[in-house]
Amino acid sequence: MQIPAPFDYERASSVNDALELLARHGPESRVVAGGHSLLPMMKLRLARPEWLIDINDLFELDFILLEGDHLRVGALTRHTALLESAEVARLFPIISDAEAVIADPVVRNRGTIGGSLCQADPAEDLSTVCDVLRAVAVVRGPGGERLVDMKDFHRGPYETAVAPDELLCEVRFAVRPNSGSAYEKVERRVGDWAVAAAGAAISLADDGSVDAAAIGLTALGLDGTVAEAEGVLLGQQPREELFVEAGRVAASACDPIADQRGGIDYKRHLADELTRRVLRLACARAAGTQEG
User: Fold this and answer.
1) In whole angstroms, what is the distance from residue 210 CA to residue 230 CA?
2) What value does the mean pLDDT take over residues 85-111?
3) Contacts by 121-125 with C-beta closer than 8 Å and gap 24+?
4) pTM of the prediction?
5) Which CATH fold would you assign to the domain 8-53?
């Protein structure tokens, strides 16, 4: 049986209380909500915090709100809430696509968007989704609130821009007109980490050409989006030969490693194929919003 190293525990009653506890206990303290990211690492002794700060009572961080041209999602929002939200599915189908293939119902009922993003696992689905949607993280600490673009939020495997005395409080997604998005994942079995996955977000101009494009890959050795593949589409009318070329560029740009989930050539093939699929679907969804 795997048992974590000894630790102490406190339960925060508010965001301010959580920040005070983090400041009091120092860099060896960690916050925990769903625990599906942190606790397995503690059992393997890959993480050995001296204090756990439980933030499950911070209901102020559990919300999905559409305000103007932004969708605001609290860091304590559970995966199930995102999956079941009709507004999320309408505005950002890529989130619903990804949530449907994250782990299993038990994990989705307890795990949070904040926990997933702060884990910063290279094979984590929502990190790619947030990169593709150009999301912005709202982080609070002793100096107040600051906004961090998602491209700057993840600094490497298991490393984020959130300081030890700070707390991720919210994620904001800009709502863009005539847009569509999609996410597809290949896994060895249901609920497993991705062998490979891809996400795309497309915005169309009034004439139907691609006005903005973002493509991201999961578990394939890339940080952020694939600018070279995105450039293939910009200013062009969506069509199959462009999806093929973008897939080829994405496969060439990625840097997968061979492991028990597959070899390098196989993973590059998946990068190519999955990029084509998500672009096809994202463009179709964007065209559907224009027709609507």
Assistant:
1) 10
2) 92
3) 121/37, 121/157, 121/158, 121/193, 122/157, 122/218, 122/219, 122/221, 123/193, 123/194, 123/218, 123/219, 124/218, 125/98, 125/101, 125/183, 125/185, 125/194, 125/197, 125/218
4) 0.94
5) 3.30.43
